[in-house]
Amino acid sequence: MDRTQCCVQLSVQPSRALVDERFVILVEKAPPGFQLSVRALHQCEDGHSWEAFGHYISDATGTVNVSQDLSLGGTYSGVEAMGLLCSLRPVPGSKPGLRMRKKDVQAPMMVTISVYQGHQVEGFVDQVPLASVVVERWYVAPGVRRIPITDHGLTGTLFLPPGPGPFPAVLDLWGGGGQLVEYRAALLASHGFAALALDYLTAKVIRETGKMVEDQYFETAYKELQKHPQIVSSRIAMIGLSFGTTMTLKMAIYSKVVKLRCAVCISGSHVQPIEKSVEEILSSFNDRADKTRINEENQVIWRDLLLPIPTDPSLKADVGSLQCPLLLVVGEDDQNWPTKESAEDIQEMMERAGNSHLLTVLSYPDTGHLIEPPYSSHTRTSNFKPVGTNQKVTVLWGGQMAAHARAQEDAWKKMLAFLRENLYGGRKASAATQSNL
Amino acid sequence: MFKAWMPVRKILHFTDVKMISYLHVRHHLAGLQPPAGKNIATLPVCRSSSSVKQAPLLTAAPVRALIDDQISITARFLPPSSPVTVCTRMHSEDGDLWEAFAHYNTDTSGTVNLTSDPSAGGSYLGCEPMGLFWGLQPAPGGREGLRLRKRNVQTPYVVRISLLEGHVSPCMRDISELAAVTTERWYMAPGVRRSDIRQNGVVGSLFLPPGPGPYPALLDLWGMGGGLVEYRSALLASRGYASLSVAYIGHKDLPPPQNRLNVGDEYFKAAFKLLQDHCEVDADRIGIFGLSFGVFLSLRIATQLGLNPSCLILVNGPVGSTVALPDMEDHFLTFEKSQEYWTYDKQGNVIFKDVSLPSNIAPERKAKVENINCPVMYIVGEDDLSSSSKENADVIEETLRSAGKSQLFTRLSYPGAGHLIEPPYSPNARVSFWSIKPEKLMTVWGGHPAPHAAAQEDAWKKVLKFMESHLRR
Fold first, then answer.
1. A16, A29, A166 ranked by CB distance to B190: nearest
2. pLDDT tens across A198-220, in order?
3. Which of B29, B64, B109 is the best mutation test for A, with the most CBs of A within 10 A?
4. pTM, to two decimals
5. Can you tell me the ipTM of this complex?
6. Which of A294, A406, B112, B132 lies 20 to 30 Å from B20 when distance is taken between CA atoms?
């Protein structure tokens, strides 16, 4: 092996981090002006391999700093410190339509980062890298406790931060795919919030009775949080993505039981028939299925189902009567829900009602539907089976990788600040001030 | 000779301004158990029934760190200008409880930041971002003569950081724990590979960085305390160097008896060659890291065995030996034979310093320093009571100067630092057990907490840079 090449040094700091923490990748002691590829490889829990790579040229000192230098090509380009994670994609030959989602949040995501000679696009697996390191990416901080919640017919998982508490809490809802998705709640607990991830579409009680849950299900979850000795009953928030937004607004505005300190609605809409059950709301969406669009790649676009935004007040949640701060996170390229149009209408409704001081909108160009914790691989399309159907389709979620990745990072930071300010700060609930965000 | 200890603990500070003495109280700590994976010491939570006040927010970053990484600790959403105590607690592998604490005052926004705020008292004074780690001491009421050393480097130290109300000390009763976080401190980065070495008679542990190599390497030698000490090698591998820690006394796999030095030149040559011959090691880039008696061994390997290390890192050790190596003479000597040079402090603890005074070492047992051909970094703890480090550094420096090789020599000298200059942010043991048979004997290593900690931090940075220069160019 060439003497100079064997001296190439690679460091990734930190080597153990939470998934929302940045790392710095440094390649050193390469020959100056040397072409090299930096590659990430991850095998996820279902056995699929994902990779990402960037093409670099070392500077006069033989150094590449991924946080500062341009990737000239690969799965990402430009200056992207976290590009190797954001652009992870299934290796060639994988099943189409995959999406990376962590199931076991108590084990880390292991990523191997390597340096190869030259600007390679394939065949990494057959080569010996010049250098290689392993990093661990964690959804939980040490000491976070995971508690399955099965009482009172609930299907959920509670994550508690370490320490005596009592803690403010967040009820965490995902969208129309159902299942019990834990990773965001686990991460929130790693930041000091008790968090209850709740399955409300494929919960045990639904599978057993064949019936969708009612408002009472969410109210029971809320009351379970209130009752918990390590949770402050007056400091509970809700965070919902996609259909989870529909449920969050429903509870925040109409429930007599649920009194939120604040709410975060990601990639969702306020359009819903009011005072209706969950089942009826889902039906009302299904009734508009004829507005589904299929593009040339056979990908399903559902954003038109709720368009145009109705003017009839009985068809949208009355955001004008909201009494707690609301943070909306909008991907302007959301192809799944009309998030942008909904946000505009929400803004208008709240201005008319005089409570727009409670509203903060984070709107991101070229950002799609799946606005997830930062540095997770961007999924523009994937296979999807909506609850209550047997069809698996390929859905277009939207978003351009670099912009979407930046949006995830920025939104997460601001979401945490919003939650901290409203759940940890002040005696009175207050809208996040611009200076804090 | 050996007096019983009074069960009173003192926390001594570098400036010796404050002394806080504890009563000898038993700990009634809820949930306190010897470590079994993830058990962490918890404090008695004594909250009045009326206080359902929300917890403030305590954060530590990173929560999983390498031993030589700094951890930032902040507390927010506390009342403004209020007294708080931040404390750390952890269990050693033997089940002993170690703790540290410091007193802070929140600013006008109700925040404390240990990276920038000064401690007003406790285990350390002033602004010490890592004071809660290097200031760890055995908890009052625990066993005496302890030294914190990680045996299993594949698991982390789990340290609980707590925020307490007021300026208190952790062992008091009726204290209110406001918040807590858990941190892990690792000697090994992910992907580092550890293997047992029992080859060619060599007893050691090899640590390899992740990746294909080849890597620059270190032979890692400790002192007469014996055994196989892995943590420095694990950390070096985590920083990109293959590292072989070698046992030479006090290990069951070495030729018996354990209290004698039964291996000599051939043994150390075999160890060095093991690295040279390893397919993942760059044979032209091997250095030697020696502490205490390991310094003499490093010098001998570099000058007597026909080997060419790329550099030597020497910490607080002698240029020669009062103990004969088997290859040197026919008869063997144990370390105990050097007793004529042992002295004792008022508590009856043994001080070994004079054993390694150059004037007490026979000339034929001194390494031929003039034959060194590689850069040498010598680290002196000026309060070293176990070894005459300064005097030995002087001899090495003078010998090299006379041989026209002064450009090879670098000295780092640290006032207030003791013998055990180890990787940073670990507590120093000023005194600890040397042996328990035939009778309990404790030895004085020297060093005061704050300057010793500063020395460890600074020395490690400089050692890494030194290795960078001489093992990677």
1. A16
2. 999 999 999 999 999 999 999 99
3. B64
4. 0.91
5. 0.92
6. B112
